[in-house]
Design a protein that fits this description.
Length: about 375
């Protein structure tokens, strides 16, 4: 039985592979955009092979292999996306360098997906002027808000596939760290890729970077590119992250593709999120029921208090009259009259006694 419920993270290599897997939805047309119960976004697109559901989560996106119900008339961000993108063609889907950022291009807009931190979706015009971001965010060097110009976050190093041997050699020689640390500073690459690179080349990763020859730095860069470009991609889960490629790290579960991995793992994560939402709803409903019960009790007590106050006020106002009736009853008892005789005699003057019980010493009066 599958028990994984944490939200998996896409490594940049897995993201690169995912984009290759979904290239068939390029030139597809957007038919609908909706919000799901767990706040994910569902984009229904029409391709040559039929309709597909593209699901956007905070840290991933994938083509769903099952039907996922959406909220009815949710409005909000999905409604705005639909307003701009309905019936628009997906021109291209590209990764921004080696970053976990994907750009969906449409004829008149860019939809940028940021798959790091809490995740975000930003709709822009073709000049990158922001129409709206799903979540407003601001840093010292960039701002995600309406009418701001979208600026890509600074990359953590250069995309290895775009680096050349000469520039890489110069940067490594200028770095004062070990070769491993210097390469991490220079290239936007997973540490696991570098671990395998140095293992394959039999280069001591603790060696000072400025001691390496150009031949050695060239071999490092070429080996990194070779690992990244390897045609046979093993897709697997390790420590809540999805990897593409054999990187000599523990494999918890293997998959046929990144998209199928996301279908399986995100479904489990979604079920976990839904269960938590339902649990919170049950707690909220139970709490609300208790609150309603307490309010009803309070209201009942307020009514009782009001009724008792009204009765008390009435008794106060009719005090003399009540006293006269009680005195008349006592006089009747002293004369040996029956309950009926006493009541009839008093009521003949004014019909006020409704019940008289001398044994229980009670009397009910109509005031």
């Amino acid at each position: 039985m599958e028990t994984h419920t944490k939200t998996p993270q896409l490594t940049n290599l897995a993201l690169t592979e995912l984009i290759k897997e979904i290239q068939h939805i390029e030139n597809a047309f957007v038919n609908n955009i909706q919000t799901l119960d767990n706040e994910w976004i569902k984009m229904k697109v029409h391709t040559k092979k039929g309709d597909k559901n593209l699901i956007f989560t905070p840290n991933s996106f994938f083509i769903s292999d099952r039907s996922i119900p959406a909220k009815q008339n949710p409005g909000g961000f999905s409604a705005l996306l639909k307003k701009y993108l309905f019936n628009q063609r997906i021109v291209s889907i590209k990764q921004n360098g080696a970053d976990r950022i994907v750009i969906f291009e449409f004829p008149n807009n860019f939809m940028i997906i940021e798959l790091f931190a809490k995740g975000n979706i930003i709709l822009c015009e073709k000049d990158f002027k922001i129409i709206k971001a799903m979540r407003k965010e601001e840093w010292k060097d960039r701002k995600l808000d309406k009418d701001s110009i979208y600026k890509f976050p600074s990359s953590k190093g250069i995309n290895p596939l775009e680096e050349n041997d000469e520039d890489f050699y110069k940067k490594i020689k200028e770095n004062q760290k070990t070769i491993f640390g210097a390469t991490v500073d220079t290239l936007n690459v997973l540490p696991a890729v570098l671990e395998k690179t140095f293992l394959n080349l039999k280069i001591d990763k603790k060696k000072n970077a400025n001691e390496l020859t150009k031949k050695e730095t060239t071999s490092i860069l070429q080996e990194v590119k070779k690992i990244i470009n390897h045609s046979e991609k093993n897709i697997y889960l390790s420590s809540d992250a999805i990897y593409a490629g054999d990187l000599n790290i523990p494999k918890e579960k293997e998959f046929d593709s990144v998209n199928s991995a996301l279908n399986i793992l995100m479904t489990l994560s979604s079920n976990n999120i839904t269960n938590k939402v339902e649990e919170k709803k049950k707690i909220k409903d139970t709490s609300q029921t208790r609150i309603n019960s307490i309010n009803a009790q309070i209201k009942g007590l307020e009514i009782q208090e009001k009724e008792l106050k009204e009765k008390g006020d009435l008794i106060y106002l009719k005090y003399n009259e009540i006293t006269e009736v009680v005195n008349a009853i006592n006089k009747g008892k002293q004369k040996g009259l029956t309950e009926k005789e006493i009541a009839e005699k008093i009521n003949s003057v004014k019909p006020i006694i409704t019940v008289l019980d001398l044994k229980k010493s009670t009397v009910k009066l109509k005031l």
